[in-house]
Amino acid sequence: MRTAKIRILAVTMMLAALIGCQKPADKTNQSGVVETKASPVKVYKVKKQKISEKLVYTATIEPWKKQAITPEVSGKIARIYVAEGDRVSRGQLLAELDTQSIRLQLQQAEAALAAAKANLEDAQKNFDRMDRLFKEKAVSEQQYEKSRLALEAARAQRDQAEAAVNLAKHALDVSIMKAPFDGVIASKNAEEGDVINPMMGGLTATAGVVTLVNYSKVKVKIDVSPDDVKKIARGQKVYVQSYDIPGQKFEGEITVVNSSADPQTKKFRVEALVNNPELVLKPGTFGQVIIEVVSKEDALAVPQRALLGNWYVMVTEGNKAVRRNVTIGLKNTDLVEIISGLKEGELVIVEGNFGLADGSQVEVEGEVEK
User: Domain of 112?
Assistant: First the structure.
């Protein structure tokens, strides 16, 4: 008996809680007519404005110039003068190899060149004397020919010695690594004392002693569908927005539109170059690429969220919501062009419009700008 009373009490409490959670019922006036409660909504005043159809992609931001700084000759790294993050100017010394052996080779080559030049000078004098005597028929043709060949050999030795000097100077030049352009040191890939051989594994031309980048402009690469690539052309304006810097856009232009698709993805590679003078966009981060393919300056447009079912909207007439069928044109992530069905100045419902029936009572709580 006690158990039955407890169950009845529990059911009574549950019913009371449910009744307390219910929304107040619509009021009935003295004539017996039910007064429906107005739905709160927010509206947007229809107006003419610029609208652009946009293609939006996600891409990795890359520097427009990137180079691994590597000497052309092998050797031990003597000094590295920069650190990661340093800004450098074109021609600035970045690193150098131990050049002691190269300098000794240069001294040896210069000494050999001096000897070759002296030998050439002696051979030239001997030939000049033999040439005069041969014309006077004081020496034989064999003696004359021998002096001529000695002169040619001396010239060849001089040329060979000059080449050895130039080769040693070149080895000295390329063992000193300088910045080929203005930029920032993106990475340091070796340490002082490491032995580097560009022709073998380990530190190669792709790794380098340091990596230099210039991202005063950045490059983005996207793969687009066959339908979208028809709307894109070189020189077309493009915007990049970093996910790390919301609300700020950087302008650039399309530089490459591939004419052939990737055999596997069937998509077309498109590249763009974007200005980044303050170095705000960082290489290696993700960004949103926005391409405006078609624009209208004076289009009747409303926010996307006003559109229901892709073919009608709700407008306010007095305190009622009225359904309007519309014909749409250009669309982007924010706006949709209305070709027919609305007039400039009308109030279209943008908040509270989902599930709203035609003729419903509404209460406008405010007007939004977009």
Answer: 100-174
